[in-house]
Amino acid sequence: MTYLIDGYNLLHAVGLANRSLPAKGLERARTRLLDWLADAIRGRGELLRVVFDAQNSPAASDESDHRGVRVRFAFRRTADELIAELVRAEPHPARLAVVSNDTQVQDAGRRRGCGVLSCQEFVDRMIQAPVAHAPGSPARAAGSPPTEKPEQDATANELAAWLEVFSRPKRKKP
Questions:
Q1: What is the DSSP-derived secondary structure letter of residue 71?
Q2: Is residue 100 in a domain?
Q3: Which residues span the domain enclosing 55?
Q4: What is the spatial distance between Cα 56 and Cα 59, in angstroms, rounded to a whole number?
Q5: How many Cβ atoms sit within 10 Å of the Cβ of residue 148?
Q6: Is residue 114 part of a domain?
Q7: What is the rounded distance in angstroms from the CA atom of residue 20 to the CA atom of residue 32?
């Protein structure tokens, strides 16, 4: 499964950035998000492509790699516009899932037959540990949601993972 992610949409949805964040802080927040995504997909056999807005960028850049996560900046357009273009160009849309809370981005994915996930659904999927199956039990396809949501409380490890991802960085002492 390939996930095509609206980068700043996810960044804001998980609380790593707000509109008043200065450029240096935004760069650190992007790196933090990309590091978390790289750790989340390790060993899962999934591809993440993250698209960030770059309307005011001085030059175009190719798609780059950040620890296994593909990153692209939408030169002289919005990430939404580039994502819609990438969705239209996708030869196998059923193998693609669009990740955004933006309804226009979600609609572009649905029109082509892509999977669509809100940012929260995507984060839930990424923090969910891969399920080990007992012999003879049906295996769940990689990237597919469980048939039912678990009714148990979060484990200590899950809570620690959430706190690590969504806590603000600690300030350095002078």
A1: E
A2: yes
A3: 2-129+143-166
A4: 9
A5: 6
A6: yes
A7: 18
